[in-house]
Design brief:
Strand content: under 5%
CATH topology of the largest domain: Endonuclease III, domain 1
Number of strands: 0
CATH superfamily of the largest domain: Hypothetical protein, domain 2
Shape: elongated
Largest sheet: none
CATH architecture of the largest domain: Orthogonal Bundle
Radius of gyration: 19 Å
Number of domains: 2
Helix content: 55-70%
Structural class: mainly alpha
Mean pLDDT: 91
Length: 233
């Protein structure tokens, strides 16, 4: 795995209402258990450099990690740098990613981003939020995944899994991804902030699934306020 190109930057937690001591203890216990089970969770997307990570995360929107990894396994053999991607061109790129949803739009964005990286950043991925989010196809969520994965900045990208798990565990009752992110950044204990994103995603992907959560196999079932709702499902 590529080494981080910058030191982790401290991030101030958003101000929220004071959390009762019992609730703080419950939240601490939740993440301590996740940590005990998997100390350093990582993305399931395959990559060998920051550029490959940016491309893989951008391609993963409305697609599974499995489908993206299948596509990039071949793609990155021929285009693993911005310049190589530009040399490939849209006609050359599309056959590699046409099994992924929205592949035409994603192909255009990948190539536009590659051009910006070559022209404005010397072919290197800028590892700061403002520059990342300026790249076509890279929004706040993609930038958060990249910065968190590379240990640049603690961040919690809220996808459907994080949103669902956060609500079931009552870590957040907010109704938008941005608001959920704000609450999580305020509530997750500091030692776990750089890893919470992956723990919540993986928990939602494999245990706290949408229709029939696997409460019998859940590490934090006894700490879940809605467990009783699913025991008879």
């Amino acid at each position: 795995m590529a080494k981080p190109l910058a030191k982790t930057r401290a991030v101030s937690k958003p101000r929220t209402k004071p959390i009762p001591s019992a609730e703080r203890a419950r939240i601490e216990d939740i993440f301590a258990r996740f940590c005990a089970a998997t100390d350093h969770p990582k993305t399931e997307l395959s990559y060998k450099s920051p550029y490959e990570l940016v491309v893989a995360v951008a391609l993963s929107a409305q697609a599974t990690d499995v489908s993206v990894n299948k596509a990039t396994a071949r793609l990155f053999q021929v285009a693993d740098t911005p310049q190589a991607m530009l040399d490939l061109g849209e006609a050359g790129l599309i056959p590699f990613i046409q099994s992924i949803g929205l592949y035409r739009t994603k192909a255009r964005n990948v190539l536009k981003a590659a051009q910006i990286l070559v022209e404005q950043h010397g072919g290197q991925v800028p590892l700061n939020r403002e520059a990342l989010q300026a790249l076509p196809g890279v929004g706040r969520k993609t930038a958060s995944v990249v910065l968190n994965e590379l240990d640049i900045e603690p961040a919690i990208a809220v996808d459907t899994h994080v949103f669902r798990v956060s609500h079931r565990l009552k870590l957040s009752l907010a109704t938008t991804p941005d608001a959920v992110e704000k609450e999580l950044m305020a509530k997750v204990p500091a030692p776990y902030l750089t890893r919470a994103h992956h723990w919540l995603i993986l928990h939602g992907r494999y245990t706290c699934v949408a229709r029939k959560p696997k409460c019998h196999a859940c590490l934090v079932a006894d700490l879940c306020p809605v467990r009783e709702l699913f025991l008879g499902a």
